[in-house]
Amino acid sequence: MLDPSLSPRKFRLDEVARKVEIVDRMMPAMPERVGGREHLRFRHECRKRDFSSFNRFVLTAKNRGDRPVLIELKLYHASGNTEDISQAMSLSGGREVLDPYEEKEIHFPIEAFGVYGRPDYWKDITAIEAIFKTERGEAANSPLQVDAGPLYAEHRLTAEGPRLTAEGLQSVLKKHLPERHCPYPMTKEDLLLLRIPAPHPFPQGDADAVLHGRIMGYDLTFPFPWHTPPSAHLEWAHFFHRHHFLREILLAFDEDHDQRYIAFIRDVLMSWIKGNPICVGSNGGAGPAWETLSTAWRLRLWLFLKKAVWQHEAFHDEAKQYTLCSLWEHARHLLNHQGHPNNWQLIEAAALALAGISLPEFQEASQWRDEGMARLADACGQQFLPDGIHFEGSPLYHALCLQAILEVRQAAAMAGCLIPENITGVIGRAASYLGALCRPDFTWPAINDSGSAGSDYTALMHAAGRILDRPDLTWHGTRGKDGMPPDKDFLVFPYGLTGVMRTAPSSGKHYLVFRAAPPGAFHQHEDCLSIDVATDGVPRLVDPGITAYAPTALTSHYRSAGSHNMMLIDGKGPVPSPALHSHRETNAGRDFIHYEDGPIQVMSGICRECRTGMHCSFFRTVIFVDRSYWVIHDGVMGSGEGILTACWQYHPTAQPVIRGKAVIVQEEGLRGFALSAFTGAFDISLEQRWVSLGGRDIPAPQARYIVKTNLPCHFFWLLQPFSGQRASCRVTKQMDDAGGAIRLEIRHDNNRRDILMLKGVPSTVEDWERTGPGRVSLFRQDGHSGEKDVP
After folding, report:
1. pTM here?
2. What is the pLDDT of residue 549?
3. Helices 421-436 & 365-383, crossing angle to 10 degrees?
4. Domains of the chain
């Protein structure tokens, strides 16, 4: 947070006891582009490696350019590597800003660093790297021009928290406290929101386990090791400091009012507050304690805790004083700083608004509320597309944002506060989209960086259904036990370029989600034109998700095209567009075509450029026939010879086998799922890959169809749930004339034949621009009768 300019009796600051210059000037490497952003790196190889007697680095930097620059400091450690983290490092998060033509000292305190690995703090640092970069999504009009140095190491004398003293607290509270100094009691809606599982992949024990120190898979002793986490993964430390584990305690207390729970909450809060004084002169960086996103999550939870414990004797006056002081510091920190311009800023804005609504005893409450609401309205307008999809294209982060907005709506309704239209208008659409993605087994696909391939958002749907009075959301939230199932089976989100084809949700049978969208604004995976499929209520082909963000080979695998259900050209997938996300979304609508025609539903999308050295593009058309099976048309456009690989990632529970051109999953009885190739001299193999489930990396089979062929070319796939004999498929006639047509024949076990005619099939991007993927018609032949058009 920024220095609040209060007297030392009201707010305690650090004192610098020692300051040593490390280097007077850092030398830059060549500029580079990383994920479409310009980076300029300055690296200092450390002769003196032991910085354990220091607790802050200070870098003087000058921006000689005409656009803001973000600054990150990375520390490379000689020890602390683990089995899956090959280079232990500390990073500051890259959110410190240097304005155009500005020169200043930037402070990087030890508490603002996140750590990967198990280094002995700053005892053996081999190199220090200063990275200057543009904001994500910002157009690069000119090269970065930055000077870096000198770089200093400092030792500060720090006091325990809170920095705001008892006298300081009285100065920021209202002189005449409002009647509602004691918060509203917990409501049914509050409890539903609290029952939403914490958004992390680590084990979540019950209240009794937490009371005994079993937290996120580790046995801890109290006082908890806030600064020496047992896990080598930065994400674990972040979730630990967000106090998600206190949700189970709070819910248990609501059930039986055991005073042990109040004492535990009190002791955890006081221990954390004393051990983690607020960063002053820093935005908290990537440090687990005061990173802006962690601050927001913790503040939101503490506001629920305040409702539950404030009136109980076990939560004594000293605990109340410490909590109020720290709540003020939390709100001030979020008022002073914002994190990344994605879900971070939306969640942080929601937390600031909640502080203003829920803490009327503070003089600044109305400022927090109004600024938080304004930021939240702005974030909703920027981050949610008109069809309700969050611009990151990730159901996980979509759900986190929806949850934060619902909390604001509920708190505002209780307090009688007005909410801007930009916020209220988003909630229903965002909830509808998340509901549309629900699989028949009430799990969700892990599209684009969404954690587990079996994510569960039913608790969020249940809360949304009650707060919004939506029976369809309640149906999802109660796993079909209450409410009413939605009545649509063909759902299209044209701005987010995503569609769902399914049988009626109440039947609990077949489901396919198709993502034709360009990469999301953040959290980008190479999954354009990928699908996620469930049949007979069972997930079959899945997006693998992602388990952690640690810099490992498995993290890179999860993000790659080859881990998804899509086509590769020479082993490579689509090129993430360097264009601004807003431009990509605005111009992407023409790349997504969808329509219904009697018994067929069609969705199609195009990927215009691949990573291969060849200049080629490909499109995918998904056809749902009679709401009983799918035909997929993959067209590769370009020229020359290439190796085409179709990847089909199965759920870990599947046990597929190869039979001819088909890969079959046969279950007990006659039920199963078959993926068949219509054409192509493919080499077919089953390989072990990985799928993320419940925070674990689970081995899972992947089918690969590989062929070397000339471009342009077309491939067709039958995705068939079956009970008894499965259908066979073949191309009986193919014409390559202008506006070419392709005839597909699917033979069923009851002597029925379905004939799909694809007319106007494109062979070039120019063809696609004129006609799209072509028009699909269905004909049917029963027994010995002739072909009949199916209207």
Report:
1. 0.94
2. 82
3. 50
4. 15-157 (2.60.120), 185-337 (1.50.10.100), 344-485 (1.50.10.100), 490-724 (2.70.98.70)
